[in-house]
Design brief:
5 strands, 269 residues, three-stranded antiparallel sheet, two-stranded antiparallel ribbon, mainly alpha, 42% helix, globular
């Protein structure tokens, strides 16, 4: 994600963007606009609706991954984006993208026009998207309801999708199984808050605790349920307070500057 990105106010006059708002509703245009600051300078972003929900609009508790998918389908039908599900990537129309991010150096710019010239997926989806009402109510033809998926695995996939640093999934899953349903719900909310803070403040992921530490016995997630802890700024020194994801011993640093556990010899990747 690019840091400190500014979106030109001229985007509010873009006819296609306004058409998106008129046809698909305010949430769709809000999602499209907010996706831009989260995208890479190469005009790309994740194609996973659940990941986008937690990364781009974590505060919209009234929306689901199905709402995001409906909005993306309409963006694709208007060729604002090229949604490549198999590749796991969404490509923005670079003419529009760089028109409103003019400060990005030309050396970092790319040309995504080829994805739109041959984007058969968009043409096939357009008739279906045209039937989506402005309220963006989930369509029965879309993928299965995310709440059902969450129930099937006790909500771990929701937490994992929301958490900004994805490392040690197996260990994290084991700890998740020991949590109560109430704690799992709160931890998922806390993960979304942390992800939003990391994104908005440009915090390097190496300074974010491992997810298994976040939900470990010290219950770090409780500090994030209502917002960033007082005084937290993601500074490098904060990593010294992190604990080993395996035994939760306070971490130190080895001669190579990597976090290392003195108890079980675990070393950060």
């Amino acid at each position: 994600m690019s840091r400190r990105r500014y979106i030109s106010s001229a985007i509010s006059l873009d006819r296609v963007v306004n058409r998106l708002a008129a046809e698909a509703g305010d949430f769709a245009v809000l999602l499209y606009t907010w996706m831009i600051p989260h995208a890479e300078d190469t005009a790309r972003i994740s194609a996973d609706p659940e990941e986008l929900l937690y990364m781009v609009v974590p505060g919209r508790r009234d929306k689901t991954a199905d709402d995001v998918e409906a909005a993306l389908l309409h963006m694709a039908s208007l060729k604002l984006i090229a949604w490549k599900r198999a590749e796991g990537v969404i490509y923005f129309d670079t003419k529009s993208f760089y028109r409103y991010q003019a400060y990005i150096p030309k050396a970092k710019r790319v040309d995504n026009s080829a994805f739109f010239a041959t984007n058969g997926d968009n043409r096939q989806k357009a008739p279906e998207v045209a039937q989506i009402p402005a309220s963006l109510s989930p369509s029965p033809s879309l993928k299965k309801n995310t709440s059902s998926s969450a129930d099937a695995d006790d909500g771990f996939s929701d937490f994992w999708t929301a958490y900004p640093r994805k490392i040690g999934k197996a260990e994290c899953s084991k700890r998740w199984q020991k949590m109560t349903k109430k704690d799992r719900t709160a931890a998922t909310t806390a993960a979304s808050v942390l992800a939003s803070h990391v994104s908005s403040q440009g915090v390097e992921l190496q300074y974010v605790p491992h997810p298994s530490t976040f939900i470990g016995s010290k219950r770090k997630w409780e500090d994030w349920v209502d917002g960033p802890p007082a005084g937290y700024d993601g500074a490098k020194g904060a990593e010294e307070k992190f604990v080993c994801p395996l035994c939760e011993t306070d971490l130190g640093y080895d001669e190579n500057g990597k976090a290392r556990c003195s108890m079980c010899e675990w070393v950060a990747a």
